[in-house]
Amino acid sequence: xxxxxxxxxxxxxxxxxDWADGRLGIYSLAKANMRKIFPDHPSFMLGEVALYSxxxxxxxxxxLTLFFVPSMAEVEYHGTYVPxxxxxxxxxxASTLEISFDVRGGLLIRQIHHWAALIFLAAMLVHMMRVFFxxxxxxPREVNWLFGxxxxxxxxxxxxxxxxxxxxxxxxxxxxxxxxxxxxxxxxGTYLSMFLFGGEFPGxxxxxxxxxxxxxxxxxxxxxLLVAHLILVFYHKHTQFAGPGRTNKNVVGMPLLxxxxxxxxxFFFLVFGVIAVLSATFQINPIWVLxxxxxxQVSTNAQPDWYMGFSEGxxxxxxxxxxxFAGHTLVLGVxxxxxxxxxxxxxxxxxxxxxxxxxxxKREHHIADRPRNAPTRTAFGVxxxxxxxxxxxxxxxxxxxxxxxxxxxxITWFVRIMFFAGPVLAFIITKRICLGLQRADKEKxxxxxxxxxxxxxxxxxxxxxxxxxxxxQLHTLTAHDQPEPxxxxxxxxxxxxxxxxxxxxxxxxxxxxxxxGPESGQIPKPTAEExxxxxxxxxxx
Length: 541
Known about the structure:
Blueprint: H1 12-24, H2 26-33, E1 37-38, H3 45-65, E2 74-76, E3 88-90, H4 91-101, H5 106-133, H6 142-164, H7 169-183, H8 189-197, H9 206-236, E4 240-241, E5 254-255, H10 256-281, H11 287-290, H12 309-317, E6 322-325, E7 328-331, H13 332-359, E8 367-368, H14 375-395, H15 397-404, H16 408-447, E9 449-456, E10 462-467, H17 471-478, H18 503-516, H19 528-538
Helix pairs in contact: 3-5, 3-10, 4-5, 5-6, 5-10, 6-9, 6-13, 12-13, 12-14, 14-16
Keywords: Membrane, Transmembrane, Transmembrane helix
Region (Disordered): 514-541
Domain Cytochrome b/b6 N-terminal region profile: 16-242
């Protein structure tokens, strides 16, 4: 009699996992990275809002691509929307009407796509503001700052090409605005316009070309930048705010799996739900009200989406200057804003490198700053936001005039003056506020928090009792670095020979003093001796 044993087969899922691991090394990769720690703070969710909005844009964009016809060939409309019957329009506009009225759920998907695009750009901008104000762009994250900046700029142009596709009167007016800006480029402006539009405006090629850029080119580049951005976030580890046990060499937070991924998954559906509710209840871009684009018409109240209002405001407040030079008419009223717009964007892009040069800081930073502890940087950020808001008013000067019953000329002059004065005032005021908050923090560390309890001393004096701060609060208020400003040194060397100091070195030292100098960039933190003296019984605690 013989006995035989049969080996029990592993479950199918386990066999598939073993097969994949043997070829892709998934297990070892997951084991090394799935327990990676991420810090937790509400402001860190801004980047997630941008990421999830981008995913929603891709999903809804695929749906819309199935029904949209990117053609400028003219047809006569006889679809579901009766008021448009008999009107000649492009196939692009007709197919957008069909998506809105005939495709099941088409209008809702269009609304979700548009709202997600607006929220995507808003989340990216606010996310970059968080990174800027907390100094999270410093070494080793300068390249990631550039990736994020490029995502924002490409998102702006992707949005522009997207809302131009329906070929309605509003979007056509925006394309006409762009054509005017291109024509203002000296010498080559006409050639650029003919190349882009395939002939005289509007031509027959712009919608198909915008469609290719909007669906393939720009999203493809953005997807690559987004992946690179996330890889660098993963590689460099996330910044964290100062607190007990948190240093530049560790991360205090939750593991990627299962905690962070579970929260992230729930947050994705929350973002999707909010965008869906917005789309279902607040109408946006009703193209059937505007009608198809005609070059001889301009829609009233023509405004771009908010993220392009900056460029429109530049052109609207600029005087209509024209100069004849060497047989060419230079339309400076349009060309100068066309130059200023990319220069402002470039200044934002290179700021991390400028600050590193000014401060001479070559260290790695993984602890985020409190904005008040970097007054000059914070003041620059608020100045830029002020400039943006002023130009946004300029870009909508007609609507501001009609809604608030103001003179459009008065609004234009206000924008012209505040374009120069607004950022300067914002810079000065913000810096003084930051220094005042630093002084308040110093007082809080030395004397504690105001309790609101009034006590009368034996000799009749009334004082307010201060509550001492916890060790965690003390650490948070005193954890920031306070580097010394760069010094030029003595004018002469040890032999009495005058040293040669370049203009760049002098400028760098002066700017460094504005970042780190006492009473200009930072209020000295309380020393241990001061704290011991106050808390030894001589202070009002």
